[in-house]
TrEMBL record:
This is Guanylate kinase. GO terms for molecular function: ATP binding; GMP kinase activity. It comes from Alsobacter metallidurans. Essential for recycling GMP and indirectly, cGMP. Pfam families: Guanylate_kin. Keywords: ATP-binding, Cytoplasm, Kinase, Nucleotide-binding, Transferase. GO terms for cellular component: cytosol. PROSITE patterns: GUANYLATE_KINASE_1, GUANYLATE_KINASE_2.
Length: 221
């Protein structure tokens, strides 16, 4: 990821800034897909990194929108060609973030949203540390996490059991993230998520156009 591609002018900003990579992780059922959907509706300038996965499609999912559903052979080929920025095995399936779409979005000066697990979050951070903002979503309680997985009614009982048992290892990774949100009330959590995005976009180091902008102000004094 060259710094040149990251400094493109971002729409609606007075001052040029670098794009950022917003990484959301959580144990299954805590609400990251819901929060991602809300962010995409209300922050259209944010580009979602659509992952490839070998997991079967859920009935609510659309190929190319939520994931690109591919075979294990296709996944292995992409991975071995170096087409994935990061990849991991999660709950017995493979997932990865295609590099091409990310490079294209960054070249267009977009911020990018990743819904990936902690293994992927760590890989993205190693590759682009200063551009990553990572957020971990926790459920308000374990019974509520279980309720949400059951209410979603998209997975079989054994898949739900597998996801709940993985939650222990995932929840334990909370210290690796910049921010932690407890997703109790959805509207409140979403408000906090947006607040993080707004503040992170305004970090001094991300506003690469500031020296010129401030010089312009000084020249006019
Ligand atoms: N490392 C990595 N993890 C991913 C990727 N895409 C999805 N995941 C994670 O894989 C896990 C399972 O996702 P999914 O099958 O959609 O189930 P859900 O979390 O219950 O909605 C979640 O923790 C996702 O964040 C990816 O491209 N890379
Ligand atoms: N704050 C919340 N309060 C109540 N239900 C929620 C909340 N956030 C998400 N849900 C519901 O919980 C279920 C799991 O959420 P989802 O976004 O699919 O989780 P994840 O992507 O983390 O697995 C969905 O049915 C969703 O509508």
């Amino acid at each position: 990821m060259s710094s040149e591609t990251m400094t493109a002018q971002l729409a609606n900003d007075t001052v040029n800034r670098r794009g950022l990579l917003l990484v959301l992780s959580s144990p299954s059922g805590a609400g990251k897909t819901t929060l991602t959907r809300l962010l995409r509706e209300q922050e259209p300038s944010l580009t979602l990194s659509v992952s490839v996965t070998t997991r079967p499609k859920r009935s609510s999912e659309v190929h190319g929108v939520h994931y690109r559903f591919i075979s294990i052979d296709e996944f292995t080929e992409m991975r071995d060609r170096g087409d994935l920025l990061e990849w991991a095995e999660v709950h017995g399936n493979f997932y990865g973030s295609p590099r091409r779409e990310i490079d294209k979005a960054l070249a267009g000066g977009q911020d990018i949203l990743f819904d990936i697990d902690y293994q992927g979050a760590m890989q993205v951070r190693e590759k682009a540390a200063s551009d990553v903002v990572s957020i971990f979503i926790l459920p308000p309680s374990i019974p509520e996490l279980k309720n949400r997985l059951e209410r979603r009614a998209e997975d079989s009982a054994d898949v739900i059991a597998r996801r709940l048992s993985a939650a222990k290892i995932e929840i334990d990774r909370w210290r690796d993230y910049d921010y932690v949100l407890v997703n109790d009330d959805l509207e409140r959590t979403f408000g906090r998520l947006r607040a993080i995005l707004v503040a992170e976009r305004l970090r001094r180091d991300r506003q690469t156009g500031l020296p010129d902008f401030v010089q312009g102000l000084l020249n006019d004094l």
